[in-house]
Amino acid sequence: MSKVYLSPSCQYDNAYAYGNTTEAVQCIKIANACKSALERCGISVKMPSDNSLVNRCAESDKWGADLHVPIHTNAYNGKTSGTRIYYYDGSAKGYNAAKAIYAVLAPFTPGTSESVSANNGLLEVNTPNAPTAYVEVDFHDVPSIAKWIIENTTAIGEKIAQGICKHFGVAYKSASSKPTTSTNTTSKIEAPDIGGYMKEGDKGVAVYAYKQMLIALKAKKIITQGVDDNNKFGTGTTTATKQVQKAAGITVDGLAGAQTLKACRVLLTK
What are the pLDDT digits (tens) for 198-236? Predict the structure, then answer.
């Protein structure tokens, strides 16, 4: 069974030009959809348990990934658009994987400036043992494209998965052809705005992304509490969460659910 390590962006400070959202939130959604599709097709998938890119590469290596796939959206000048996919120069497998994903994804995305190219300067291209296909879906600083990405995260994830299947010579099965019944126990990363609660003791990408919001709120002097200096939801994060809830006039319980996350986004616009 082929093994794919998906590494969605954790850049929560990269704002979209539409929708009051960010690169990390949307790329996590895309990665979740891609994971579901790959597992449906019989490919084993691992998602990050850490937001350090160095640690992600080490995790990918330790797991023995056959392909390392970072998933990002791009930004430049508010006008440039299109899919970019990068690979390590000299890696035939990386090039072939990048081309396979590009062949499916690029015609689907709305942008017009498309390319597959070597980029050895990216840490997640030059560090993993596995060949890398580094996906930049399209440009989120163009409002119409940002809107398109937000509305098509599931379809984008499916397209990336379809390209990966093509690379490995595995038959792609659409969601309608077979319900997802994967028994893979690798945890899925949940985007921090799609329900559920984060609480003291939790850790992972969603917690990290949430804490970036709290850091931004502290910088705007909307809250005063410092956030724990680690990837965990600690006591400092609980206190900061309560300050957000109090400022927003919602239930003060220190649990970060959908209402609290919405409150953060609203407060950040003030």
Answer: 888 887 767 777 887 888 888 888 898 777 767 688 899
* Cα separation, 3 vs 5, whole angstroms: 7
First to last CA, the chain: 50
Q: What is the pTM of this model?
A: 0.71
Q: Is 27 exposed, middle or buried (0-12, 13-18, 19+ CB in 10 A)?
A: buried
CA dihedral 36, 40, 41, 43 (to 10 degrees): 60
Let me know: does 186 contact 59? Beta carbons within 8 Å: no
Find the length of the chain: 270
Helix (H) or strand (E) holding 104: helix 92-105
Q: State the Cα angle at 169 between 168 and 172, rounded to 5°.
A: 100
229 contact partners, CB below 8 Å, separation of at least 6: none
How far apart, in whole angstroms, are the C-alpha atoms of residue 74 and residue 142?
A: 10
pLDDT by residue (tens digit) across 21-51? 999 999 999 999 999 999 999 999 999 987 7
Residue 207 vs residues 29, 46, 197: alpha-carbon distances, Å: 15, 18, 10
Buried b vs exposed e over 106-125: b needs ≥16 C-beta within 10 Å?
bebbbbeebebeebeebebb
- Which residue type, as a one-letter code, is found at position 79? K
Q: What angle do CA 232, 16, 133 make, to 5 degrees?
A: 75
Quick check: 13 and 216 in contact, CB under 8 A?
yes
